[in-house]
Structures are given as C-alpha cells and as structure tokens.
C-alpha cells in the first residue's frame, strides 16, 4: 500500500520490533488474521498500519505494509492478510507461519487515515471494498471497546458471501453502528439488492446525508476508492472530509 510514513506518536522514531505469532484464524478462504505479541509496542490509532519484514537464513529480506485490524490492546497487534497467490510475502504469512514464529514489525505508521475517538465527534461513514475493510474494522472495534457513542455507518462491498471478512464481528449488535453489505458478483439467495458495483444510491441509502457533515473513510483497491470517493463528492459531501486509503498486490 502506498501510505504516508507518519508514526502514531508524532515525533517518535519508527524502529523495528520483534513480533511473535501467538494465534491465527481464518477470515475467509484466502484471508487469515494473525495475532502477534510485540514487546515494546507503543500503541496505535485505528486506521494505522505496520511494515512487516521477513528475513531468510541467507540474509535476504523483504518488506510489505499491512493494516492493523485490532483495537489498541497493549502489546497485542492483529493483522489480517489476504493471500496473493503469486505474492512473495502474503502466502508465507497466510499459510506457512505457525505459533511461535517471529517476524519484525515497524510502526505504527500513518497519521491521516485514522479515527481519533477523543477528538472527532461527527458521524462516521466507512466505505470498504474487499479487504479494504481491515483498517475500518479497527475503527469499529475501537469504538466498541471504548463504548463510544459517535454514530457509525458501514457500507461494505465484496465479491460474494464467501469472501466476507470479520463475519462474527459484523454479526454483533453494536448500538449506533449501521451496516450495509453490497455484493459485486454473486449475492445470497433472496438478497434485496442484485449484484453489481457500488452506486450513488448505495452510498445515499447506506451512508449519511451530506448536511450531517460526516467524516468519510474509503478504503479498497484504487478503482474502488476513486469510484466511491467520486460518488460521495457528487452526492454533495465535502471533499475535505473524505479520507481515502488504497491498496494493491505490491504490498
């Protein structure tokens, strides 16, 4: 992902920390959530990400960036990784790593695409495409953990039911969190909306009216983000209140 390198604590120097895998579970056929214990972790804001570095025995190393999926919780950090079949890093993280294995993490990174619960009191609109839900789930989980009363609305576009992430979380009843699921390729039997790409009507029905001045967070592939952000502007949302995050298979 292409993101601005701003640490969670402004002025803090980013450094590599050793992270030990303590647990993992499936989110979908291709996505896994990895739970790490990271001694010395400084804490993070929902929406931030980390750099992950793998180093082979011969000294070769490579890095990728992954959004943090968890609410701040001491030295515990969760990453949800979508496996890219021809990727260099994601297949190892998603399919090979076992409890006790170690990697290096650097972060938290990002100061723009974050939700600050002590400062932001306006309604929040979250618009996710596919695995773009990951940093938005950190915002949802943080709101839940704090008992925050700021109203949230989530519009989540995914290919089909099998690709849905965080199924138990999204089934949880959260007062003040409204959820709209959209399917682009195939929908469950009897689903009221036929499969298709996100539209202005979807964002109008599932989101907030522009005059509520919500904080809008849009995350997904470049094409999805450009489309969704453009639709929000066309609906009358202030572009200055729309924050976007894009991802791609390069990390």
Automatic annotation (TrEMBL):
| Keyword terms, alphabetized | 2Fe-2S, Iron, Iron-sulfur, Metal-binding
Pfam families tied to this protein? FAD_binding_6
GO MF: 2 iron, 2 sulfur cluster binding; oxidoreductase activity
Ranges where the FAD-binding FR-type domain occurs: 14-115
Name its co-factor(s): FAD
Which InterPro entries does its entry note?
Cbr1-like_FAD-bd_dom, FAD-bd_FR_type, FNR_nucleotide-bd, MRET, Riboflavin_synthase-like_b-brl
What Gene3D superfamilies does the entry give?
A: Nucleotide-binding domain of ferredoxin-NADP reductase (FNR) module, Translation factors
Family annotation (PANTHER family): NADH OXIDOREDUCTASE HCR (PTHR47354), PROTEIN RFBI (PTHR47354:SF5)
This chain's protein is named: Oxidoreductase FAD-binding region
Taxonomic source organism: Streptomyces gancidicus BKS 13-15
């Amino acid at each position: 992902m292409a993101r601005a390198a701003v640490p969670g604590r402004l002025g803090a120097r980013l450094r590599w920390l050793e992270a030990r895998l303590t647990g993992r579970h499936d989110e979908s056929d291709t996505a896994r959530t990895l739970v790490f214990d990271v001694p010395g972790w400084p804490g993070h804001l929902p929406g931030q990400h980390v750099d992950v570095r793998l180093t082979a025995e011969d000294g070769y190393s490579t890095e990728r960036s992954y959004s943090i999926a968890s609410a701040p919780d001491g030295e515990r950090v969760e990453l949800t990784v979508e496996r890219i079949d021809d990727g260099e890093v994601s297949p190892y993280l998603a399919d090979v790593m076992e409890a006790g294995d170690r990697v290096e993490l650097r972060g938290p990174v990002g100061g723009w695409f974050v939700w600050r619960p002590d400062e932001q009191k306006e309604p929040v609109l979250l618009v996710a495409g596919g695995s773009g839900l990951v940093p938005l789930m950190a915002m949802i989980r943080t709101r839940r953990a704090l008992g925050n009363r700021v109203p949230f609305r989530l519009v989540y576009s995914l290919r089909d039911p099998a690709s849905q992430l965080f199924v138990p979380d999204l089934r949880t009843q959260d007062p003040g969190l409204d959820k709209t699921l959209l399917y682009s390729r195939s929908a469950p039997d009897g689903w009221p909306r036929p499969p298709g790409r996100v539209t202005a009507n979807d964002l109008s029905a599932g989101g907030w009216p522009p005059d509520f001045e919500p904080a809008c967070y849009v995350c997904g592939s470049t094409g999805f983000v450009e489309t969704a952000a453009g639709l929000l502007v066309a609906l009358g949302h202030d572009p200055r209140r729309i924050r976007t995050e894009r991802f791609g298979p390069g990390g």
